[in-house]
């Protein structure tokens, strides 16, 4: 077996795990290829957070099963869905050969050793100590600082799929960071379901592990240009994090603080463990330490029992905070979660209609927020060519997708100063600014031909 391909669904933790498994496959002598078409091994790194990603996996596995009848092909399932009974049923139905849960990904080598069906669902301690090789030729990288989640939000499947929280030792994190730095990485995103509770696993402080605020300062003084992190949980958010962010220049002024709902009644039913009043206190602390902070959130609309009034409170909260970015989802009742068992689901039309109204509001805010950057010089990490190869694409310190036309001498990935010329709710567009503060406009193709 020689060629392998991984299809990744879900969040950045899955992206990190895909990179980790790819490095294992390469160590086994396999070639990673860009498409499943000519691969001998296709792995699906799955997500189970909502029904949609699960449906996608079913569709793709159906196609792969047909493909297996035509040629020699090994199909594997990894990621969150693999950990669930639901996923294992799907795997049996579609004749999946290899199934490894999120805690068992290092078993991939064992799985491929012999030609038998291999399933592994254990959470293995060795995974926390494993340092994957740095990505090649990449300016940005993810770095997992913890795995699992100790919360029990009633809608959420993640604690079941990823197990209880385990913080990684800071020595390992710093070692992994050194390797990233040596490989030329300039922006690192620290990953965890609740980075703010780093160092406190199952309610107990882990000996030898600093607080998240201290870790931010350590990572920020390593020489890396940009540090980001995701996700923060409002319950564990403490002001020392906002202070550490403000006092550590490498740490970007970007906070992703999922609120989920603007209604205390709904938050209680979700078991989110904070009130809107508390949440707004955290937002105020963040704004006090970083007046130019870019704020992002996650919102679930149409949760079981959400009334029009509850939803209106979410809309009002959006205006009160003035989010720059938001990830918005219609509630998806997931088998195995407490809300699936105990609460009724509401009609899909209601959820979709509310979601639409919220998205309209988000667009208005994003339009306004992004327009404020027009005329300003901002730092952009350009990671490579956009779909239109005359442009480079990347993002600001506040995670705004940004597009810049190439000009002579400014056509390679890197961190640059860009003067924003216009913006939309989704993206910003601008031009390079040279060391003298001069804007570098591209020579139009037509003018060049004249
Ligand atoms: N640990 C992170 C979130 C991880 S899941 C946190 O607590 O902030 C990412 C997002 O998916 C959540 O913030 C939530 O908005 C959404 N989500 C989770 N379960 C969901 C469900 N059953 N239906 C719809 N959205 C869901
Ligand atoms: Fe899910 Fe809640 Fe844990 Fe986030 S904090 S992963 S939403 S259970
Ligand atoms: Fe991520 Fe989806 Fe798992 S959001 S943690 S891959 S369920």
From TrEMBL:
- Give the Enzyme Commission number: 2.8.4.3
Q: Where does it sit, as one GO cellular component term? A: cytosol
Major subcellular site: cytoplasm
Q: Where in the cell is it found?
A: Cytoplasm
Q: Which GO terms describe its molecular function?
A: 4 iron, 4 sulfur cluster binding; metal ion binding; tRNA-2-methylthio-N(6)-dimethylallyladenosine(37) synthase activity
Q: Tell me the residue numbers annotated for binding [4Fe-4S] cluster 2.
A: 149, 153, 156
Cofactors, names only: [4Fe-4S] cluster
Function as written in the Swiss-Prot or TrEMBL entry:
Catalyzes the methylthiolation of N6-(dimethylallyl)adenosine (i(6)A), leading to the formation of 2-methylthio-N6-(dimethylallyl)adenosine (ms(2)i(6)A) at position 37 in tRNAs that read codons beginning with uridine.
Q: What is this protein called?
A: tRNA-2-methylthio-N(6)-dimethylallyladenosine synthase
To which species is this protein native? Deinococcus cellulosilyticus (strain DSM 18568 / NBRC 106333 / KACC 11606 / 5516J-15)
Gene field:
miaB
């Amino acid at each position: 077996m020689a060629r392998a391909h991984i299809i990744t669904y879900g969040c950045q933790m899955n992206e990190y795990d895909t990179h980790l498994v790819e490095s294992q496959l390469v160590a086994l002598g396999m070639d990673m290829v860009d498409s499943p078409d000519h691969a001998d091994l296709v792995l699906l790194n799955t997500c189970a957070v909502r029904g949609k990603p699960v449906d996608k996996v079913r569709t793709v596995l159906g196609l792969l099963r047909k493909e297996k009848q035509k040629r020699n092909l090994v199909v594997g399932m990894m990621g969150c869905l693999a950990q669930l009974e639901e996923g294992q049923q799907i795997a049996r139905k579609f004749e999946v050969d290899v199934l490894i849960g999120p805690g068992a990904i290092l078993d991939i080598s064992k799985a491929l050793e012999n030609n038998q069906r291999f399933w592994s669902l254990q959470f293995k301690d060795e995974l926390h100590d494993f340092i994957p090789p740095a990505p090649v030729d990449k300016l940005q990288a993810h770095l997992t600082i913890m795995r699992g989640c100790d919360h029990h939000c009633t809608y959420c499947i993640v604690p079941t799929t990823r197990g209880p929280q385990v913080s990684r030792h800071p020595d390992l994190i710093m070692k992994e960071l050194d390797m990233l730095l040596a490989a030329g990485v300039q922006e690192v995103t620290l990953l965890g379901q609740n980075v703010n509770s780093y160092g406190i696993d199952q309610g107990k402080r882990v000996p030898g592990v600093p607080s998240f605020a201290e870790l931010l300062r350590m990572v920020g003084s390593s020489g890396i240009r940009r540090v980001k992190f995701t996700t923060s949980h409002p319950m564990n958010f403490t002001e020392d994090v906002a202070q550490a962010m403000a006092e550590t220049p490498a740490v970007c002024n970007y906070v992703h603080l999922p609120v989920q709902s603007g209604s205390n009644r709904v938050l209680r039913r979700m078991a989110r463990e904070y009130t809107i009043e508390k949440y707004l206190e955290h937002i105020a602390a963040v704004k006090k330490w970083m007046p130019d902070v870019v704020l992002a959130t996650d919102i679930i609309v149409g949760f079981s029992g959400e009334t029009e009034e509850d939803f209106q409170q979410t809309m009002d909260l959006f205006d009160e905070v003035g989010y720059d970015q938001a990830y918005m989802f219609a509630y998806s009742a997931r088998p195995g979660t407490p809300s699936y068992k105990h609460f009724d689901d509401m009609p899909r039309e209601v959820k979709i209609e509310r979601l639409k109204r919220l998205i309209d509001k988000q667009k208005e805010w994003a339009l306004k927020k992004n327009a404020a950057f027009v005329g300003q010089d901002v730092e952009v990490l350009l990671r490579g060519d956009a779909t239109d190869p005359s442009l480079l694409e990347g993002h600001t310190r506040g995670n705004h997708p940004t597009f810049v036309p190439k000009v002579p001498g400014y056509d390679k990935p890197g961190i640059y100063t860009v003067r924003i010329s216009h913006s939309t709710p989704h993206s910003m567009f601008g031009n390079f600014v040279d060391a003298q503060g001069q804007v570098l406009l591209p020579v139009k193709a037509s003018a060049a031909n004249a």
